[in-house]
Design brief:
Elements lengths: L1 H28 L13 E3 L5 E3 L7 E3 L4 E2 L8 E7 L6 H15 L6 E7 L7 H10 L7 E5 L2 H10 L17 E5 L5 E6 L5 H29 L1
Helix pairs in contact: 1-5, 2-5
Length: 227
């Protein structure tokens, strides 16, 4: 009877240890398959058959070096945007780790960049942002940490970036998602970063990587069609 219990216990332990590893390996080996990304936000259908897609308006920010920047500094780049604040205890650190994993995956692609915007400019000063960036060992060409005027950021996050809409009217907005923006400043994907299980977190990272690859493929195909 004791041996039987031991066998059951060992089997349970093996399942707990081995199954997540199998899941991780399956995710790692999963092949990317191109999928055309939609254009998110309001779309206007013109009489001539053309379409006008939701486009991000420009925003003025200050980066971790104290330099004034805007979206024009990311011209001709696929841009991955997320919002955070440095004193956030759980959601933001987990999200920013996920974003950093993706940024490192695309370190060889200068036309893929990352913008992390603090929604708490009162506390997230330039030195605070610089220290926060160091904690993630971020390549500060590849990934920019920035903040700016709080009201302008909040309006832009809600109306342009289309994040935190369920918190509209609140004095404090927050979201765990990333927004993937194409070179024409159209939103092409909004993806969650959080997951309860480790394999789920890996899956979320892969979704972000896949959608960036979808856009890279789209631009490569356009370049080939021009030849």
């Amino acid at each position: 009877m004791v041996n039987g219990k031991r066998k059951i216990t060992m089997a349970a332990i093996a399942a707990i240890v081995i199954l997540p590893i199998i899941g991780i390996l399956m995710l790692a080996d999963a092949k990317w398959v191109h999928q055309e990304l939609p254009y998110l936000g309001n779309t206007i259908d013109n009489p001539d058959g053309s379409k006008e897609y939701h486009t991000l308006s420009d925003i003025n920010l200050i980066n971790q070096h104290g330099k004034r920047i805007s979206l024009s500094d990311f011209d001709s780049c696929i841009l991955v945007v997320n919002i955070f604040f440095t004193s956030c205890p759980e959601v933001c650190p987990a999200m920013n780790k996920q974003v950093q994993v993706v940024a490192e995956e695309f370190r060889a692609f200068p036309n893929v960049r990352f913008l992390s915007i603090s929604i708490d400019p009162e506390n997230d000063s330039v030195p605070v942002l610089a220290k926060y960036a160091q904690e993630y060992r971020a390549d500060l060409y590849k990934r920019t940490f920035a903040t700016g005027n709080k009201k302008l950021i909040y309006d832009w996050v809600l109306n342009d970036l289309l994040l935190a809409n369920e918190q509209r009217g609140s004095n404090f907005i927050h979201d765990d998602k990333v927004v993937i923006v194409d070179k024409a400043l159209h939103i092409r994907s909004i993806l969650a970063t959080q997951g309860v299980r480790y394999t789920q977190k890996l899956e979320r990272v892969k979704h972000i990587q896949d959608d960036i690859n979808n856009l890279l493929y789209e631009y490569r195909k356009k370049d080939m069609d021009k030849r």
